[in-house]
Amino acid sequence: MASASLPEFIWIWNQRQGLSTPALHLRIARWLEDLWQRRETAALLLAFRNSGKSTLVGLFCAWLLLGHPDLRILVLAAEQALARKMVRNVKRVIERHPLTPHLKPRRADQWASDQFTVNRGAELRDPSMLAKGIGANVTGSRADVVICDDVEVPNTCDTAAKREDLRVRLHELAYVLVPGGLQLYIGTPHTHASIYADGGGEGDGLLSGYRRLELPVLDPRGDSQWPERFPPDQIEAIRARTGPAKFAGQMLLRPVDTIDGRLDVDRLRFYGDALSYTEGNRQSILRLGGRRLVSASCWWDPAYGSPRGGDASVIAAVYTCDEGHYWLHRVAYLAVDPGRAAQVDEATQQCRQVVAFVRDLYLPSVTLETNGLGRFLPSLLRRELAAAGVRCAVAEVASTRAKDLRIVDAFDAVLAAERLHVHDDVGATPLLAEMREWRPGGKGRDDGVDAVAGCLASEPVRLPRIPPPDAARRPGADWRPGGAGGRARTHFEP
């Protein structure tokens, strides 16, 4: 057995690192130690994001090797890099903890970044600790302890097919774990059909019968589980920033159906103000109904724009003001005239509409989604912007996440906080109908919703641009705070 209990082991490590040991961590440590002493074979630790659960489990692994150097521990995560991170942390603990330096082997080849073998008496084929991604081949490996660290993340559970594949891979671990070994899951739910849900969600009761410790950020009385790091105002800030659906899953540990993040039009706030562009004191200022705008996002999701049907080509513009509210000022559904194709091709027709959109709204940048049709449009759009004398950057983005998740994540927080303002003219477009009818996995139109989601999810553009000499007298001068240079007198002598 180890010469110290797990809480003592962790307390000594924290003291060496100049850290305190919060009550939450002591509770987790006692639970982990009790698992081992009772020879439990299946356990689940659910704890809110940034609670330090992976760090604590890493210390648990080092403590296990201190007491039982012959153990073989396999760490699985959604990606190899995440699993390697835990193995790396355990290596550092073994090197620096006052109780464990004797475990470090002399041979460098036994001390790799993704696996290591401590000084031990037994001659075993498998290392003391090994890191693998969930998609890796573990056939032939054997482990006394299997740690499944955040195997459920959006990349492994955002579709039904991925969720089924994850379950199949996790079932294979039964052939890796030796009889009587411990399988420990740690994580937070990322889907309504979470593997962590009671009864296995939509699956087959994958973790039914596992000993569970669930630690949401709020205890049953509504108090913070870690008040030093997560006081009430910080928790509310996280709730406002992430939105109710993600907060419920990641901080309260409640598997949430993505339909809970549907787009509630009743939470929109409408306005009718026009943009007001002024110049003074060598500054360009853009206002909306008396509010100064500080940044803008513009997203173009291109399609053929055929009047006969198919996907719509949509461009949207969202501003943010100095109070942190979002202003959806314009959405345009671009269409082409096939009858003019002989004189101006359809792609150029759309690019010229985008140029007019950008010029009218004083936009400093437009993001172009390059999936599919958009692959060849950036250079064409840059040519048309230059020909029109419009100073606007063109950013290219290839979307890789599932569209439903992109839309929910973009709208959820801002709608919950009722900080999305929509111009009356936008209400005359198909956008509001798309929002009312939108459901995850649905077959309805969502081109406008997707474009607005792109704006909301984009980082606000505040990059300064170098204007031509007459920029102060031309529309389009940089209206964003900090976008213009200045000169100050100094008394510095070179």
In short:
This protein is of the alpha/beta class. The chain has two domains: 6-256, Rossmann fold (3-Layer(aba) Sandwich); 261-465, Nucleotidyltransferase, domain 5.
Beta-sheet strand percentage? 15-25%
Number of domains: 2
CATH superfamily of the largest domain: P-loop containing nucleotide triphosphate hydrolases
The pLDDT mean sits at 87
Q: Summarize the biggest pleated sheet.
A: 9 strands, mixed
**Secondary-structure-derived class:** alpha/beta
Rg calculated over all Cα atoms? 28 Å
What would you call the quaternary organization?
single chain
CATH top level of the largest domain is Alpha Beta
**CATH topology of the largest domain, what is it called?**
Rossmann fold
The geometry reads as elongated
Distance between the termini: 69 Å
Order of helices and strands: HHEHEHEEEHHEEHHEEEEEEHEHEHEHH
Count of helical regions: 13
* Helix share, percent: 25-40%
* Uncertain residue segments: 461-469, 471-475
- Let me know the number of strands: 16
Please give the CATH architecture of the largest domain.
3-Layer(aba) Sandwich
Key structural traits:
494 residues, Rossmann fold, 16 strands, 13 helices, single chain, seven-stranded mixed beta sheet, Nucleotidyltransferase, domain 5, 20% strand, 2 domains
